[in-house]
Amino acid sequence: MSEQKIVDYEYKPGFKGMAHDTGSDQTMFKGVHWGKAMMWIFLLSDTFVFSCFLISYMKGRASTPVEWPNPSEVFALDAFGVPVPLLLIALMTFVLITSSGTMALAVKYGYEKNKKMCGWLVLATALGGLIFVGMQAYEWSKLIHEGVRPWENPFGAAQFGSFFFMITGFHGTHVSIGVIFLFIYAYKVFAGHYENGGKRGWFTTMRGDYVEIEILGLYWHFVDLVWVFIFAFFYLW
Amino acid sequence: MEETKKKEQQGSTHKIGIYLWIWGLLFVLSFFSYMVDWYQFQGMLRWSLILFFMFLKAGLIMAFFMHLFWERYALVNVLLWPMTAIACFIVLMAAEGQYTLFSRLFYFFVGGGQ
Amino acid sequence: MHAGIIFLLVIVGSILFHIFTPWYWTDIASNWQGMDDTITLTFWVGGGVFVAVCLFMIYCVFKFSYKEGRTVEYKPEDKKLERILTWATTLGVAALLAPGLIIWNQYVNVPKNALEVDVMAWQWGWQYRLPGEDGKLGTTKVININDDNPFGINPNDPFGQDDVIIQSDVLNMETDRPIKILLRSVDVLHNWYVPQFRAKMDAVPGVVTFYWFEPNKVGEYEVLCAEYCGVGHYAMRGSVIVQSKQDYNSWLNEQETFSELVAKQNKLKIEENKIAKKINLNLN
Amino acid sequence: MSDEIENKSGYQTQSSETMNEYSGAAVGDVDYVRPAEIPEQDLYHGHTFLTKWVFCQDAKVIGVQYFLTAVFTGIVGLILSWLMRLQLGFPELAGFMTAEHYYQFVTMHGMIMVVYFLTALFLGGFGNYLIPLMVGARDMVFPYVNMLSFWMFFVAVAVLMASFFVPGGPTGSGWTLYPPQAILDGTPGSGAGILLMLISLSLFVIGFTMGGLNYLITVLQARTRGMTLMRMPLTVWGIFTATVLAMLAFPALLVSSIMMTLDKVLGTSFFMPTILKAGEVLEYGGGSPILFQHLFWFFGHPEVYIVALPAFGIVSDLISVHARKNIFGYRMMVWAIVGIGALSFFVWAHHMYVSGMNPWFGFFFASTTLIIAVPTAMKVYNWILTLWRGNIRINTVMLWCLGFIVTFVNGGITGIFLGNVSVDVPLSDTYFVVAHFHMVMGIAPLMVIMGAVYHWFPLVAGRMLHEGLGKWHFWITFLGAYSIYFPMHYLGFIGVPRRYFEMYDSPYMTSGVGLNEFISLAAFIVGAAQFILIYNIIKTLKTGKPAGKNPWKANSLEWHTSTVPPEHGNFGERLPVVHRWAYDYSVPGAKEDFMPQTTPPSEVTNTEVEKT
Ligand code: HEA
Ligand code: HEA
Ligand code: CUA
Ligand SMILES: [Cu+2]
After folding, report:
1. How many domains does chain A have?
2. Which of A153, B92, D511, D552 could form an SS bridge with A161, CB 3.0 to 4.6 Å?
3. ipTM score of the complex?
4. Phi then psi for D88, rounded to 5 degrees?
5. Statement to judge: residues A84 and A10 lie in one domain
6. CA distance A81 to chain D (A)
7. Any CB–CB contact under 8 A between D349 and chain B?
8. Which of D208, D269, D338 to mutate to test the interface with A (most CBs of A within 10 A)?
9. Ranges of each domain in chain B
10. Residues A10 and A39 occupy one common structural domain
11. C126-138: pLDDT as tens digits
12. Do A113 and A183 have their domain in common?
């Protein structure tokens, strides 16, 4: 659907185009698939969720008179006997960016209807996500081992643990859901659900289309995007 | 004209080069923000660097990986304007956090004497 | 027809109710006359708009109720009229906002000579603390609270030692002297509210909040808790006695200071110890 | 599943090339409308009882499901309000009621009425039923998700109702759920009750998000040909904007629910400072109760407009149809709705003037709050200017609209009192606030709901509700409700605080005894009057006068469906093509006093219709 040309519609660039699109009939986002529009709006809503989490964290951290633990020490990891600050976090960041890259390429090949490449790249993304979740599990267990709990921690302000587990947990849940869907969609690509006019999904009357990979991609990139903020505000502050 | 036309074309594929470029940039920027911590920059410098790299990365992901750069302005605006509410919330909560901290320090630690 | 008449009666009734109501605010006993004045102003402006809008509506009901074949105006927009109305409303709103903000500015800027009073709230009661001779209140912490130190005053804060503590829900005040109420709670939200003073603010656990007023009428007033704080909320009362300077001072002199309390408690403890020792000796 | 996806013949064969033939106009013609840019939607037609009525994917059925569930919760809320009024007016008759009970009733009443009754009714009920019909779509764009949305809501209601039966009872923390009190003993239902409340709210948010995405994308991306945004009926605008608000405001509620759940269950201290209870220091420390209030009102204020904006939209349509006149200043109305919606994200802390937040915020929030009065005022003016020189049918529907205007302006003006920081100081947390929000939220939108029920019942059920009964229903409700809440303001002036279980022992509160008895009596009568409507509905369903097509002679698309009531797919073989806005009533020179949105320009040559 998304590649459909709109008959008799004059595209205009920039803000003029926006006014023109808004004033036109039928669709406001010209040529944007329903599912994709939905994902965008959902992500906007989800942005507000994460913003509220991060704002609460900022407010909580700014108003505590107790020392806030220094993340670069708390999250240091011993590499060959030397504590390297934020090593694991850095690795996680790189893994997530890698998976974001593979996802972007998967979307590209999806549009080229390149079933093989698309499928493998989606699978690679899923693996990246899985590794990320695994590393996060490791990080959590390490901190729990060191005595960090949602309600207390040995390094300083109790809210540190609370916000840490809550925010990374919420993000991790997003990643995990994403991984599950990535596996499902990898299967769907390989099984050819998007070829020959598309197969109907099991929960919808709509026919499959490679645009679904783009929609999934949006979600995945969003998960990466959130991590950018968590990385900056939680680990670097 | 060519430029805009290209931008308007929905869902068309882009050259692989652009993705690789962005991908690379993301790695580099992440590395830089990691270096901010590594070298333990402090104060304003640290903050401006962190925020700079953060927004750059976020922008790149949104613009290219999420194709926002190629979307029509109607969508872009619908997505970005609500952020002003969040911005307002952030600013006010930062002020509120400061105020709470002040109140706690003053009445529970420092006292009327200082 | 009937409809219009009934609506008209509703509006007339509302106005009459407002004029003749036996239920209106209590006599003000503080400096916040400005708040009452702003309310009155808002009543005039807002009430005026309410009546005008409703009367116009009722007029339309009378004048334009359905008649087959009536010619109806077809005019989707009237830019000029809309612009006039927008600006008029904006002006009206600004006229209401300005005095409100001015008074708020007074409300948040406490006069320098205000007497600080520490109001401590708990489920479900109040107690008060006044600064001693040094004119300063000592710092407090919830974790310091125990039987010997009911206010949680930091024991090593020199300013706290001479603080006057009032373990009762009755607080005395001197007339015509600004009071800065410092609110603190040990458990949940409360709100120290005396309707006659008009002013109020929540007591929030974990921080100290404040507001100020200047009582200007001698008398006894009831304190209400105006922020929901659990089942005892409605019963969480206290009172304030506003008195002249002499009465106030003589009351003040009878109150105990923190160090006196500590001394008394210690004495009690020593006594208890002695008794205990005696008992022990006797037993031996 | 035994049901299959059915493609009605004709739907599928339409390609964008052939489609334009339906409008019978060629490029350059006055009637020309671009060919369809969105393909026909496949609809899932249920054949079994389960898929047709229970897990139905038809937005109209989902709308009715939402409506009925919401009305059920509304009746629960109504009964709770009776119990509260019994205690307040006639405490000697309410001996069975303890303070615990009272606070549980207040809390559940507030939460049910705001979230589970009004929000669900307007967005879930009216939104589902009307959006696809009014924008000319066959259904919502994601019918399956839409179905899930209702069932999620249903589970949320079930969880909420379950909290009445758990040990300790439902939460009694006030609908604002302020911590620390909400999760500590001393507040009724601070165990299972509050947890179920938080879970129920989270489910509601998730369910609503599913529905909300549907409403938004349907409005944005699935309008019929010729239906531009500026031709949509204001009902759609109101519901659409309210949905946008909901999508952006509910996250704050979700986040605060999650954080409070963690505080309760895991013992984190997001909102919990050091607390001394019964002589012992609890294991909390360092949190900030005010943070919760900010999050709550960042949700809560948009929430009150979520229930107001659909009412604004719907009432505009009702007034226009029954005054036989175009809505005055349509463009201004749209901008006002959008403006109010946008501004509502910048005023939240006007609920916190006396909360102990940073005192300087007062200036900012008082200004933004009063600015909202300007677009709202424009809406009020435009409603009454629509009546001006109209041809007003004083029927039941119009009466509800007039009642709405009176109560809304009254409640809005008292909002201006409260918005003006220093005026709020004496009035905050008193019955003045209670009177304000019942007038503006409890009564005004309710009037619109009632008007909407009388207006659209013929469409949904094919029969006209009885006018005589309707008028009785209106007058008792309007006069009764007005006499509940108008005098209630004066209790607030006296200084009676809200959420008081008993208020008879202070001198200035004693003076309110008689008033409270009067208010309670009025409340019982008003509540009872609602059963007139229920009786009317049941009777009409059996023996009512058949409505026929378009009984009100309205223009908007929902009255121009293939059948009445509309079938699944709404418009039969062909989707309508829209040529004008929904308000061409009494156009000079036209044959009739209305002109459906589908009327092509070529048919109305001898009139002076404005170009819209
Ligand atoms: C539908 C719901 C709804 C609506 C529309 C409104 C509308 C408004 N509300 Fe209200 N409000 C609530 C629901 C609503 N409110 C609820 C539920 C609470 C209590 C929550 C709780 O604590 O439990 C509350 C509480 C509340 C408070 C907090 C009080 C307190 O706790 O101390 C405040 C303070 O600013 C406020 C202000 C306003 C204002 C300024 C408007 C404005 O939008 C009103 C604008 C309308 C008009 C002004 C009328 C029309 C205008 C004219 C005819 C033009 C002429 C007017 C002038 C020149 C002034 N409201
Ligand atoms: C939309 C919201 C709404 C509605 C409709 C109502 C309706 C009523 N409310 Fe309430 N109320 C609140 C929202 C609402 N309320 C809130 C948010 C609070 C604050 C809670 C808190 O402090 O935590 C509150 C608190 C509150 C108090 C204050 C308690 C206190 O502070 O101690 C009182 C006291 O009198 C009260 C009374 C009533 C009465 C008598 C009615 C009604 O009887 C008035 C008449 C009602 C109707 C006419 C509606 C019935 C309609 C139906 C059942 C649907 C039928 C429809 C069809 C069949 C189509 N309410
Ligand atoms: Cu203390 Cu209410
Ligand atoms: Cu509000």
Report:
1. 2
2. A153
3. 0.93
4. -75, -35
5. no
6. 34
7. yes
8. D269
9. 1-70, 72-114
10. no
11. 999 888 888 788 8
12. yes
